[in-house]
Model the fold of this input.
Amino acid sequence: MEFLGTQMLTWHDFVVELHTGVVVFVVLAIALRVLVDVGQGGKEAASARVEEVRQGTDFVAYAGSVLAVIFLIASGITGYLLLPYSTLVGQPIYLNKEFTALAALFFWIAFAFMRYWSGPTMWQKKGLYALAVFTALFGLLFTTLAGSIGAELSIGQSVLTPLYNALSIDFKQLTLQPIDVEITAALLVIAIIAVAFLKPSRKSDTGPG
Amino acid sequence: MSRRPGVLAAFLALAFLMGAFSPQSASAVTIVKVYQSQHPVTLDGLIQPGEWSDTPIVTDSSSGLTYAFKQNGTGLLFLMQWSESIACPTCFGGIELGHQNNTAVMGAPSTPTIMILASPSFKGSVDDFVSTGEFTPIPVEQDGYTTQTTCGLDYTGGAYTAECYRPFKLNNASPYDFNFTLGSTAELGFAVGVFTQPGDHLATDMSTYMLSITNETYSSTSATSTTGTGPTSSSAPTNSTTSTTGSTPSAIVTTAPTTASTYAEELLVMAIGFSVLILVALARYERS
Done:
């Protein structure tokens, strides 16, 4: 299939590069933010330079996550058009690819939603701060796995292939089992209960900002 | 801030939309397991009693080709049988192997497939080809490589029977060929036709079957469904995938629909669960 005279595979490769690049910037911005805040030792008051860094990293993380969502959706559409649906849902490696890509899309949407809902004060509440960082890390993990499986599909290997070999992971054979769904559900229930009922200390309600 | 309810609704809708990834209704790929060989095979195109009793013998309804696969530790053994009313020098039957990144019916220039065709017209009754879709398949010899497959072909009782072997360890093979090991998978297709009528052959596409090489041993009780007939050297294969003959071990295999639905469930649980987690956290910190 072609679009504007260009093979769909080429379009897919193009938008995949875009979301991968954006995600790298987002994660670097979040890492810089965490480093700065840790360096400040939790103090709210900070120099003008530190405030600039905080505002800059917040903007990059927020805008970058929105762009990542847009490019991930474009990647999904172009990827979906590459193969017959029966193939996409019939072979483990394609199921793994779709699952990791959709999970990445979800976590970046979740990150952007959290930042939209809370505004810049998200970084001033330690609980939300931590949840946002975890959400971004999950987004990074699934984006990386999706890209890695894509590389295995297109060129037969990825930079993570040695790691997969060491861990005896083969995405052509590996499939999710019902027990995985049950474990995920159990872990999420525990996390929700912990967040809902464990009382954070007053000190932890506000953080650096 | 008036847009907040709308954004919240959109976010929750997303979590449920993840469930739209519901592939249960899709047709699944049929996995053709390559079992460990228990009995030796003489590559003469004549099925001797017991030679193929250690693996399922199945007929593909699209191509009309009856097939069986097994491995003996050093290579792939496979049986092909197809009906022809008369023996003809240009008749062929064969299999096609595609890599996982192949998206085309018969390979493409960027994702060539390997065709293994048995025919009386070939020296040694078999030749390996590289197929790139719309172009005429090219014998591997044309690019300086060697056919890896060895076959015995015979015409008896209105059917051609080919018994073939190709080693796992290839020698001067096309770069597009397959270095199979235990655990390897490949797209699999079947074709039956006549070379003089190139556009008039029967074949499957490359997304219907997947070859999976295992070290499992086959017993008739391990089959999950019966979908084929077991030809013998004195009977022609049928074109049906549903008829069975009483005592012949038949059929395959496992398919993947339950796996696909498991992925959908996992995605749904993760999206809804994590969304609830985020909303609970936001609610708590909004109050504080």
In short: Chain A touches chain B through 53 residues (CB under 8 Å). Chain A has eight helices and two strands. Strands of chain A lie at 2-3, 6-7.
